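Shift notes (night). Ran 2-polyprenyl-6-methoxyphenol hydroxylase while the centrifuge was going.
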Amino acid sequence: MRIAIAGGGLGGLTLARVLHRHGIEATVYERETDRTARSQGGMLDLHPESGQRALAEAGLTDRFRSQARPEGEEHRILDPAGRTLVHHEPRPGSFDGRPEIDRTVLRDLLLDALPHDTVTWQRRLTGATPRPDGGWALTFDSGHRAECDILVGADGARSVVRRLLTDTEPSYRSTHADLEISDVRPELAELVGAGNLWCVGVNQVLSAQRLGDGRVRVGISLKGRHRQFDDKRALLDLFDGWSPRVTALIEAGDGPVTTRTVEAMPTGTRWPGRSGVTLIGDAAHLMPPVGEGANQAMLDGAELAAALAANPTDPDAAIRSYEEAMFARIQPIAEMSARVHAMMLSATAAEDLVRFFTPRSAEPALTD
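Came back to this:
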């Protein structure tokens, strides 16, 4: 059984690792030139029921805990005047919640747990054609070709493999801009804390996240379509009238501004089964970025691997079993992600988020 995994992100690598633990080898085709080719993003909180569960199936819980930051669960929500609406502080040293880990560190952890020849770098899949005797003939942008019996699309939002199963494509949701602060002044370190900060206004959010190496990643989320932001001045204009204590996060940015659109698949997306092919992660169920995407991708990988290991003589039945369970699991999570994303960029986001994050019996604290 030759298994090809298109995409070497967290989902694809989790699938390969859990298969390897079951004595089933796979080849991961990754478009990047090597593991250091680009930044993998900021910190990721791993949920016990999904991301941490997948790592347990991969046999990597101890390694994860040695690299994770439980203190990164700290979370503050501010209004544009700089007043604290919500402040969550985790129990020191506890892994009972959703500890943070640097995405690059987590990806390296998975890569290091695989045989060195599992990942074939610099292979971007451009097409897959069914073979007369079953399986798939693969073509890559480099001109290379390969064959497999089972093809798994872990190739993200613009998945090539998805086109083999459905015509459904992601649609626009919002605009997001990023910049980083490498030289973090004490007052900004205190403002952000050890985890995440959201400053919530009308139809826009200014966020900040403490990275494992001490840097701060700043994000700007905006409702509606916006042009590319070339510099900090254009971003600062969007936050005119906000507390200088908060906008200092933009002022302190010492790297380039990157702008991207946020897209999502329609909730409830499904496809009819097709022999020898399936999807995991963003390729299957791209959601707004509210903390579930990577966790669910990793769980997809672990559950697909378990299904294939349990029924190696009938991989199509294993894939059908995985897909039905995944569709049922993802539906409410995708709906929740869409609601939270819309709530964060609404006109009443601050009060809505206070209600969302505060127990009914507690009143939100307002501090200067």
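The mean pLDDT is 93. The first helix runs from residue 10 to 21.
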